Structure formats: structure tokens, C-alpha cells
Amino acid sequence: MQSTHLREHNLSTLLSTLASAEAPLSRAGLAKLTRLTKPTVSKLVEELVAAGLVAEGTPVSAGAGRPMVPLSPARGTLLAIGLEVAADHISCLGIDLTGEAISQRTEYLRVTAASAEEAIQHCAALVGRVRADAGSLPTVGVVAAVPGRIAPDDGRVLSAPNLDWTEVPLVGRLLAHPELAGLPVRAQNDNRLSVLTEIDRRPGESFIYLRGSTGVGGAVVLDGQLLDGAHGWAGEFGHTVVVPDGALCRCGRRGCLEAYVSYHSLRERAGLGDDVRIEDLVDALSRHGDRAEVIGMIGRSLGLAVANALNVLDLATVVLSGYLAPIADELEPVIRGTVEAHALAVEAGPVRIERSDGLADPALRGAARAALQPVFSAPGEWIAREPSTPAR
Amino acid sequence: MQSTHLREHNLSTLLSTLASAEAPLSRAGLAKLTRLTKPTVSKLVEELVAAGLVAEGTPVSAGAGRPMVPLSPARGTLLAIGLEVAADHISCLGIDLTGEAISQRTEYLRVTAASAEEAIQHCAALVGRVRADAGSLPTVGVVAAVPGRIAPDDGRVLSAPNLDWTEVPLVGRLLAHPELAGLPVRAQNDNRLSVLTEIDRRPGESFIYLRGSTGVGGAVVLDGQLLDGAHGWAGEFGHTVVVPDGALCRCGRRGCLEAYVSYHSLRERAGLGDDVRIEDLVDALSRHGDRAEVIGMIGRSLGLAVANALNVLDLATVVLSGYLAPIADELEPVIRGTVEAHALAVEAGPVRIERSDGLADPALRGAARAALQPVFSAPGEWIAREPSTPAR
């Protein structure tokens, strides 16, 4: 039993080391980095290669001795699927072990105008199309990103006010579709998935991550680790109060940050239709009013929520993502003004307000990456399956 | 070098195990709990006993075999000193290795009416008296609890608005006094020290700790660990905003929780003099107004700050301490109402609002305990000194 655990642990270490390396590694290089013996590395690499998890490149000769075989995670041998349910679209992304996209499908759809069951039908159909795009590749699993609170036990969406969803048994319903039958399926908060790329970019850092999308939310990262909290819901800045007894939020509460700076609230306040896309929101608002006023309102509301969170957490970095990233330079001075007026941390030095990497669809990519995770944490189970051959 | 580290580590483990045990332990019991060999335990215990850190009790015979010698941390062999600077008093407490008080001295003094230098003179004098009370006991060090932000590098008090202190070089000035010369001296935020006892009472738990005293502040505890943040300032609930552009706080900001529910703000708003003691505050306020109104205002303000923090941290327990502890039962329904109106965590189940252990002077006791910590983390240095004999 102990040796099975050890073997699994070593396989996981080898695969993860290859995935995080900037360039392919030789068996000797792997042994050095993982501190495993060369015979152990050779034996386990052989298994990983046979299972289609690791690819051997063209041997490189250093002149003397045996040529070095470069190793890297295999491309196109398996499929991990991310789903994102947003107010105005549903997207599905399939990636392989290297994180490379194999297929992405998006359907623009007003989710609040449909029933949850219809939206779930669309999700299942998109998964089916992405799996078809990927040919015969074996699927690791599916993770769905949802702008709401997920029950930790069974993947029910307890509340996703920006989708008008309450108590939607998302995971259970997805599993009932033939496109997903038998697959591991999980649901997770969209903001907590979207922060994963940012954590990779900032190893070991502590920061507040704020993302504007369907809702406004985020995550708290302490020393490179995502803070979970009691129910996996930490980082819900969107429902901290910025105006006591203020505007009614879609969640039913009053004065939430989201009642002022979410897609829905900004759009409705400006009298814009629901055909505006999230990424075009601020530009559309500016055409209907004074851009400085729009930025000012968003920035002051965010600044207050951020200042309150900084006082509780004592962090020195704030990262803006989603629709906030492209306007981060405009927002920065407004947020900074409010933060400096209220956050004690500025007594020790400036608070950094930065933009995220700006890559598109961070929640969708985070969901696909989360779906891939079981292969890295327990490659042994994957090795025990039928080996697959590269699709390309 | 390695073996010195190992020895220090083992000494620390043994002493800490004895301190956290509910009853005295035998050498065999220590070996079992620490997983050290019996010869190692015997050798190190001998050193700890010789240095006056561990006491041997009366041997107990189990009938057969060698009688068991009960071991526990030694009483009255050393002195660790805590100081507390509050708005209306300065206290000094000396404890021994068991945490038992050897001497406590308090001076009631309006710190804001005096200069910081005068207050520091009083601190030094109190330390001198406590050391005199303790006779010839060797002093481990001094930790001062201050209601403010301490510079992580040199123990300057950057700001302590409720004392009217800005940039006070507390540690440096204390060290200049003959009563403290040559001692290790540190300063720390009062609320972060006061939570230490609560952490012991709730091993491994996660909770928000809110303390009403000179100011209103607290701490965040995650899985039994105090959250530090970037500068050791996490848990400053008192300066989260509960009324945007609201009342002016002593810190110079507007709308802080502390502008509504601190000792100063409540007293001044009710027109009470500064001769009211912190622990008598709510009773005094009730004599000048409607008690339900006073409790309602305090509870709603706290509730909003707590709800915002719960949304960011996703915790399920709130502990009330300081002047909030004796009125916790009255505050609970008011805080609960506001928390339930704003905290997402209630979607998963009730948030527990509890009172702290209610022991007097938690910050002072926490400070003394923090002063003791070096003996537990590096007993070897203490062993290398001259051994001391029990004072009683």
C-alpha cells in the first residue's frame, strides 16, 4: 500500500515537474530536479510515455555519451473540458495535457431569459461538440465555471443572482446528459477559477484579485495559495456593502458592490439593452454618458470594497481582471484615491494596483485547467486505463 | 551545526509538550508523545530541570517497576513581562513559565492627556515595580500591547489614534530606561495579542475575532493560525468603512467602524467624561440613554463590518471580546440580523456569534505570553545561562 502511494506521488512529481518546466527536460535533469534516483525516473517515465502522458522529443547528442532525450507533457493525447456559464454566453473549451486548446465553442445566449434547464442543455450540447472536435481523445473530466455560490457537497448552484439561478442542481443535471455520462463533473465559482492563471504568474505572492464579469467577484491569494474559507466561497467582494441601505442588488440584498458595478447594474442604469457584450460594456456606457463619470463611479465603488478588504487582510497588491483589466489604467487613480483614504496599509507604503495578464476567458481556461488537475495529482489511475494514441 | 539545531528543536518540542499537556507527564509519556527515544528524552529533561525550566514532582509508584516522576514547566523560576497601553490605563503583568501571574501593576492614566514620553516613563516604572515584585528572577523579555500599527522593522508605533500617538519610537525609548536596559523588548498590536488565548481555546479553528477596547479591532484566525498580512496588521476591522463619508474618526479618515463604536466615540457622543472606565462604558451609556438604542447602534455597525469581512473570508464563526464580551448576548441578535442581511455564508448555514473566554485583560496576558515565547522556541539559549533557583 505504502509503495503504491509512493509510486503515485513520484509519478505526480515527475509529470508536474515536466509541466512547470520552461523547456523539455532529460531523464537526468528530471532526476536532479525531483531528487529521485535515475533508475526510478527511467522506470516511471517509461510508464508515462506508454500511457501517452509524456512525449519524447528528438534525441540530442552532447558529443560524448548517450544522447539526451527531451521529455515534455504529451500533446493531443487527452481532453480536459472547461465550461463557463455567463449572463450573455456559454463557452466550452477543450485542452490537452500541455494546456493547449483543442477546441473552443461559444454560444451567445441570454441565460437569464432562458430556464436553467435550457442553459444546461446548451452546456451539454457544447461539451458534445468539443468532444466531437477532439475526435477519439479520452476525456479526463468537466469543470463548469458559474458566477455564484456552489454547494461544497454536491455541486448544486445555491445562488447565482446574475443568472437568476437559485438551487440549480447543475452537476447532477449535466451528468444526466449522454454527452457527459460517466465523466467526472464539478462546478466551481467563476472568479476562483479565473485566478488560477494569475497565481501561476505570481508564484508565492499574496494579493486581492478582483474580476468584473457577469458579476463582480474575486479571490484572496495568500502566499500563492487560494484562500478557500469555510465553504470555498472566500473572495466574494461583490456582495460587500459599499452603500448601506443602498441600491437593491440582484441577490436580494441592498448596497452590494455588485448593485453598482456589475454588467447588469451598469447596463440597466444606463438604459442599455442586454445585447451589449460584457467586454464592450464600458465603451458602450461611455457612448451614452461621460466616460470619466462612469470610470469614477466604478473606481470609487471598487476602491471602498478593496480598502475594507485590505484593512482585514493587510495585503499590498490588488489585481484587476475581466472587464476591469482593459480599463485598469483609467481606474487605477480613482481606486488608489479611495484606497489611500481608507486603507491602513498605505501607512507602510504604496498599495500596488495592477492589471491581470489580460488573456481572454480566464474563468473558462481556469475551468479547463482544473479539469486537468486529476491527471497531475494521480497519474497512476490514468496509466491503468487503455493507452491512447496521439490524435495529431 | 545540524546536531545543535536538532537538539534545540527537541528541547523546544519537549518543553512545549509539557506546557500544552493537561497534566504532568512522565519521561516515558513524553517519549511517546514526542516520538523521541527514551534516552534522548532523559538526557534533555535533565538539562531542562537543571536550568530551572522543568520541575520534577513527587514520584508516583505504579506498584511494579521504577516509580514515575511527573514533569511540568517550572513555577517561579523566570519572569516574562507584558505591558498594555490603553487610553485610560497602563498595565504591566509578570508571569512565569507556567503562565501564572507573579505580579500585576496598573496605573489609571489618561494617556491622550499626557505626552507619549510621559506614558513611556510610566511603562518603564511599572516594569521596574513588577521586576522588583519578582525578586531576583531572571527576565526573559518585555512585549508591549498598543492599540495601533507597529512598524515591522523597529517597533515604532506608526499610528495609534486612540492614544493620539503618531511615529512614537516606543521600543527604542523603553530600551533607554535602566529598568529595561539589555532586555529583549517588542511592541505589538493589542488585538493581535489578545487573541492568543482564544486560539488556545479553539485549536485549529477559523474565526473572526472582534475586540472592543480603546479602539475596535481584531484578528483573523485561519485553521488555528493568526493571519499576519504584509505588515502584521491583518484584522483591522475598526477602520473598515461602515458609513461612506460618515463621521470623522480619530485616525483622520471618515466613516470607520471605530468612529462609531470605540471607547472615545461612544463616550464623546454621549457627552460622558473621560473618567469612565472602558469596562463600565456600556453601563454608563445606558444610564444616559436608551440601552436598546446603544446596543442597536453598536450591533448594527459591528454587523456591517463583520458581514463584509465574512464575504471576503468565508468564515462561519465570530468571537466577541473586550467590552463586547459581557454584552455579547445582547449584541448577538442585532449583529446576527445585519450579518444575515449581507453575508453570503448564511446561504450555507448559520454564522456562530460567540463570546470570548471573558478572562480579564486578554491583551496584557497575550503580551506576557508572547514575551515568554522565546523560551519555548529556543530553550537552549536559556539553558546556556546561569541556572536560577525557584523564588518560592
TrEMBL record, chains A, B:
UniProt keyword terms in alphabetical order: Kinase, Transferase
Highest taxon in the source lineage: Bacteria
Domain HTH marR-type: 14-56
Molecular functions (GO terms): DNA-binding transcription factor activity; kinase activity
InterPro entries given in the database record: ATPase_NBD, HTH_MarR-typ, ROK, WH-like_DNA-bd_sf, WH_DNA-bd_sf
A Pfam match: ROK
Family: Belongs to the ROK (NagC/XylR) family.
PANTHER family: BIFUNCTIONAL UDP-N-ACETYLGLUCOSAMINE 2-EPIMERASE_N-ACETYLMANNOSAMINE KINASE, ROK (REPRESSOR, ORF, KINASE) FAMILY
Name of the protein described by the UniProt record: Transcriptional regulator/sugar kinase
